[in-house]
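Notes, p. 3: input format for complexes.
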Amino acid sequence: MSDQQPGGTEGEAADGPELYLQGGQAPQEVGPTSAKRRTSRAGRIARGALLGLVAGGAGLAVGELIAVATGEASAPVTAAGNWAISITPTWLEQFAIRNFGSNDKTVLLIGVYVTLALAAAVDGVLARTRLTLASILTVAVGVVGAIVAVTRPTAETSWLFPSLLAGLVAALILRWLTNLSLRQSESSAELTERRRFVLGTVGTAAGALVAGYGGKAWIKKRYNVSDARAKVVLPTPAKKLPQPPAAVHPNVSGLSPFITPTSQFYRVDTALTLPHVDPRDWKLKIHGMVDRPFEISFEELLSYRFEEQDLTLTCVSNPVGGPYVGNARWLGTPLAPLLRRAGVHRGADMILSTSTDGMTIGSPVEAVLDGRQAMLAVAMNGETLPVKHGFPCRMLIPGLYGYVSATKWLTDLEITTFAKSDAYWTPRGYSPEAPVKTASRIEVPKSGATVPAGHVVLAGTAWATHRGVAAVEVQIDNGPWREATLAASDTPDTWRQWSYEWADASKGSHKVKVRATDGTGAVQTSVVQDVVPDGATGYHTITVKVS
Ligand SMILES: Nc1nc2c(c(=O)[nH]1)N[C@H]1C(S)=C(S)[C@@H](COP(=O)(O)O)O[C@H]1N2
Ligand SMILES: [Mo]
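Output follows (547 residues plus MTE):
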């Protein structure tokens, strides 16, 4: 529609024409009591966009309020965000984790809000000339949102309501405000109408902000489990581990601690909003290809035999030299006895574990029954599991990447087969089975750092979980590989730290590489491979400037 068209074409709004002068023209005097507002085209667009935003915001706020009853994940933006995560192609997921790290969810939410805001603004402009169409589109966005919400893996029927009502309310408010806006443009009782319009818009915007933020806060409070978490009395471990010896750390400043403090432990998951699982409602179901399926409560779980275990957890998405790895002391109950109690059928080779938020993770039955210490953990580093690390219960299997072993907010174990069942990441290009690859990194000095010539201390961390680290070697420029000094080993399931005294660092820029040998004697591969499908490989290489 051209802006050279006067009232005629643009004045087709179902509920009253908009009268104005041609865009871009100098205002004309049309008489002191003229009904015609001299609104420029830009002004009309701005007003339409504003009304669209206010109406959309009010709709979202109502959706948020309804989600107080139906649950956080059913709120329109959250549901849309979770859907977006589920359809994110692997390359984009990799791009996000690499560039935004743990902020990837914030970036995604901003994306959802910006998309909705643009749509609402365009819709608001459209409403001035095609109010019926704009209303229908608004309702349609709500319907799409509702479908998106109700098709999330853990959705209930009630998840339809927040988005449906958000769309309806947004459409009604859009109609109301658009009519007020158009009427005050034409009215002779200009002041009253104008006041009504301004009050309506400002009032709705303020109400939406209060309801939206209020709804969010109410949801956080209503579903918060920090009280329940604080009340958990951790079981006493049958096997209390002594502290790891001091010699596990080479005592080089700048090197990460041997036990990763919980506050620094990496977090990787697809949860846009953290699942808040009340232990009183928690159940773990073990079923599928078993003789005796059963269900246990959290109370029963805590009555089992618990053990402490030091274990390094790492993410398949960790790039060479990257940060998605941590080492903690976990408190858990062994998983193998639970499988034996259920009686796993011959031929069943996969445990498909599911979290309360619908993540599915496939692990080999073999890895749980072969004697390694697979466990259901309830605490890390002496503290009840933090919500973001899986409270109240998560799975851990030494030697496997997190996406095939470390289910957080665990609630279901189905015994099945790899042939029959796909876990979440499998159709997204990741390998169904993924043992942790031998890896090593240089942490001191930082890549690109300048150090004084002469004696330089290099230090870092290496891991080959469940196989253990038998050696670490360092290569300077293209010189020979030289043996680094290994710190004491805690267990084969934990990482191992190392240091190297570079005695004769000469001035200039040097390349330093590291590689590890695992407990089976296999040297870490130099083949450069990306994260997909089963973990990155290649040697971590840094540049050091010696001055
Ligand atoms: N429910 C759930 N569990 C999950 C995930 C997830 O997305 N959802 N991600 C897995 C992945 S990929 C990793 S690497 C580990 C990370 O555990 P952390 O966040 O406690 O470090 O959790 C695993 N467990
Ligand atoms: Mo991961």
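The longest helix spans residues 190-223.
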